[in-house]
Amino acid sequence: MSSSLVQSLLGAVFPTSDLEAIDSPIKPFSHITVKPDLIPGYRDSYVALAAPVIAYWTYSIFFHIVDEYKLLEKYRIHPSEEQLSRNRVTQAVVLRDVLFQHFIQSLTGYYVAKFDPIFTTGYENAYLWQIRQSLPGFIPTVLIYAGYWYFSSLAKIVVAFVIIDTWQFFLHKTMHENKWLYRHFHARHHQLYVPYAFGALFNNPVEGFLLDTCGTGLAAISLGLSPRETIFLYTFSTLKTVDDHCGYQLPWDLFQYVFPNNSIYHDIHHQMFGIKYNFSQPFFVVWDRWFNTTYHDIDNYKNKQQEITVAKYRQFLKERKERNKKE
Asked: So where are the chain's domains?
C-alpha cells in the first residue's frame, strides 16, 4: 500500500481543518482553555474511579447470571458443583470483602485526585506544527497527527500494562515465597480453588491495596496519563482481572484470545498443584518465563478439564431433557 494511499485514507478519518493548520506556512494560533470533561458535569478524575467499579460489577453480574442459569456449561473450566464443594469461603463473604476493597480503592483515588494537574487544550495544532517543521517532508502530516492523538496513547497504555505486570508479579511471587506474608495476607485469595468472576478482587485488604490499587495507580501516575487514558487503563485492567477469574474458556472472548495470560492460565495457579507457578498477572507471561515459573503442562490440563466439562455438560443436557419430559 503506497504512502499516498495511506495518507488519503487517514485523511478521510481525521479533521481536515486540523491537518491544514498543521501544514500551514504560518504557525497556528493557540487558544488554551481547560480541557472539558468526558461526561459533562462529572470530573474525569472521578469518572476514572467510578468506571472500573461499574465495569467490575456489570461484567461480574453477567457471569453470575451465566452461572446461575447454566447458560455456558460446556465452556466451564470446572463443573459447577465444584464451586461449592472446593471453595473455602462463601459468596456472601466474598461479596463483602470485594465491596470493602472497592471502598478503599475509591477513597484512595478520591484523595489522590485532589492533586491531579489541570489538563488544558487548544495548543495542540501549534505544537504539531512545530513538529511538522522539524521533520522531513516525506513523513505524512496525517501520520504525525495520528501519532500524537492515538499512537502515543496506545504506547503509554502498553507500557502501563508492563508496569502493572512487573509490580504484580514480584509482589505476588514474594507473597508466595515468604510464609509469613502468604499466611497473613495472600492465603485469603487462595480460599477460592474454583475462581468465579466477582471473586476476582477477593483479597486481604492490605494485599488488595498494595497489589491492585497501588500497582495500577503507580502505572498511571508514573507515565503521566491523561484523565481519559487513566479511565481506559483502570477500566480495561478491571475487566481483564474479572475475565481471568470468570471460570470459563470462551472461544469468542477477546481477552482470552489476545492475551496468553488468561482464565485457564490463572486457574492453574489456584490449584494445589499449580500454586507455585503462573504468578504473572494480569496481561502477559514474560516474567514467568524469565523466572521459569510457568506451568509447562497447560495444554494437558486444559484438555483434561474440557473432557470433564463435556462429560458433565452431557449429563446436564440429559437431566434437563428428563425434567422437561416430566413437566
From this structure: 45-114+143-326
